[in-house]
Specification:
The complex is a heterodimer of chains A (about 375) and B (about 130). Chain A is α+β, with helices and mostly antiparallel strands. Chain A has 9 helices and 21 strands. With about 130 residues, chain B is an alpha+beta fold. Chain B has 4 helices and 9 strands. Classes of the chains: A alpha+beta (about 375), B alpha+beta (about 130). The interface between A and B is medium-sized, with 16 and 13 residues.
């Protein structure tokens, strides 16, 4: 029996092609994922991301607890509503999940975790809470739905259908959030475009979705979500990283704060490690499509290496195939490698990513 | 979408048009394009290639997956639709009107073993939807 979000019936009414996504009955697309992709880059699209889980952490000492729990430094977020992207690590430095932390008050932080890891994450957080901060309340918000409205015109559409919201949210900078009525509105996203991610009471989601639709926002499914985030160079947990990989080998060095005195779970393991791999961007030079698990081969200083594509696909904006690949450190943007695609060796170029941001091709 | 009655079919969702001169034209069905999603790349065989029945002869790549196309009959490739390489999305728009390649049949008797429209409909009905 697949899990359903509050928008399940609405998706079906809008002719979504539904698929099993990690145990959830979710829309893959509503006709054409390519069209949905372009609509987000050029105008506004919306995603049902209610399968993800907001978790509220409340009580005295929440900030202190989070200093230990996550790899990035929550002391960076001191303005109410400010958000921080971080990994949560095992003591061995492997990634349990990547998530966003929102500072609301000193006694209330909200985190949003991935759907596939939600149960695991909550169990882990509760276990750490029992040891480190027994007074804290950990409350998974299964009563909430979540809709991501993304694209250059996304915020304007939200303002159109939520009268009064513009005054309250217009000043939000990227990675800031606030509450309007009982809608939690954050200027965050997983597409590389501007927009809002909105956490709202589950029973209000269908009406809100339909009003956005009436205002011209295109429903967009998981297919477009994946091509957009790949172009934006954003990791997908379970594909680009997992508990066996460290953030330092997953392109997430920038999310790990190793400089301050602060101790956090997994810190020592990272300090002791000597990463020999990196996550690199690839663009396919020959015709074809790069996909996960394809082998990447090349040379550094005359030494052969073998790596693997973690996420691959077709970039609709660039009209070429792109990928993220875990390959040896030392390989640099501009270098050429070969990818084993079925029975052929195709040429690919290593590039810095993101590949696309705010509608513009960067590579 | 209705299944054209003037074509033949395989269980692996290829369609076959038997031309007046005895050659056959091959494509993939509307059901196949719907399963695959937006097409982004088609890898076609070369003129002169020979295939046996059910041998992989082409690849249709969508955003989601790469799907092998199996030769409905044995034969030699006499023409390929190179224009499709630049516009693979035509397969999504009109699967039955987008041919991949043409074959000179190696064994005309194999044509009798292909499914007709009703037979292909039965295949679709029996698939899990």
């Amino acid at each position: 029996m697949l899990k359903k979000t509050p928008l399940n019936e609405t998706h079906r009414q809008m002719n979504a092609k539904m698929v099993d996504f990690g145990g959830w009955d979710m829309p893959l697309h509503y006709g054409s994922q390519l069209e949905e992709h372009h609509k987000v880059r050029q105008d506004a699209g919306m995603f049902d991301v209610s399968h993800m889980l907001p978790v509220d952490i409340k009580g005295d000492g929440t900030r202190d607890f989070l200093r230990k729990l996550v790899a990035n430094n929550v002391d960076k977020i001191t303005i109410p509503g400010k958000a921080l992207y971080t990994c949560m690590l095992t003591p061995q430095g492997g990634i349990i999940d990547d998530l966003i932390v929102y500072f609301l008050t000193e006694s209330w932080f909200r985190i949003v975790v991935n759907a596939g890891t939600a149960d695991k994450d909550v169990a882990w957080i509760r276990k750490q809470r029992d040891v480190l901060a027994p007074g804290l309340e950990i409350t998974p918000r299964h009563d909430m739905a979540m809709i991501a409205v993304q694209g250059p015109n996304a915020r304007a559409k939200v303002w159109q259908v939520l009268p009064g919201s513009q005054a309250v949210t217009e000043e939000l900078k990227i990675f800031q959030s606030t509450t309007f009525n009982h809608f939690f509105i954050a200027r965050t996203g997983y597409t590389g475009e501007d927009g809002f991610e909105i956490i709202l009471p589950a029973e209000e989601a269908p009406a809100f979705w339909k009003s956005l639709h009436a205002a011209g926002v295109a429903p967009a499914g998981l297919g477009a979500r994946d091509t957009l985030r790949l172009e934006a160079g954003m990791n997908l947990y379970g594909q680009d990283m997992d508990e066996s990989t460290s953030p330092l080998e997953s392109g997430l060095n920038w999310t790990v704060d190793l400089k301050s005195e602060r101790d956090f779970i997994g810190k020592q393991a990272l300090l002791d490690s000597n990463p020999t791999q990196q996550l690199a961007g690839l663009v396919l030079l020959d015709r074809g499509v790069l996909r996960s698990h394809q082998k990447v081969v090349g040379q550094i200083n005359g030494q052969a290496f073998e790596g693997e594509i973690t996420s691959g696909g077709f970039s609709p904006t660039i009209n070429q195939s792109i990928a993220l690949a875990r390959i040896a450190t030392g390989v640099s943007p501009g270098d050429e490698v070969q990818v084993l695609v079925r029975d052929k060796q195709l040429r690919a170029k290593v590039v810095k990513y993101p590949f696309v941001r705010n509608g513009k091709v960067l590579i | 979408m209705s299944i054209p009655s003037d074509l033949k079919y395989t269980r692996s969702h290829e369609w076959v048009k038997i031309e007046a001169d005895g050659t056959v034209t091959i494509g993939i069905t509307d059901h196949a394009q719907e399963l695959l999603g937006d097409m982004v790349f088609v890898e076609l065989p070369k003129v002169g290639d020979s295939f046996s029945q059910k041998q992989e002869c082409a690849v249709a790549e969508s955003v989601k997956a790469a799907a092998d196309v199996y030769s409905p009959i044995s034969g030699e490739v006499i023409e390929v639709n190179s224009a499709l390489a630049d516009s693979p999305e035509k397969i999504n728009q009109d699967a039955f009107g987008s041919w991949l390649f043409k074959l000179k049949p190696g064994n005309p008797a194999e044509l009798d073993g292909l499914l007709n429209a009703a037979g292909y409909q039965e295949v679709l009905d029996s698939e899990d939807h």
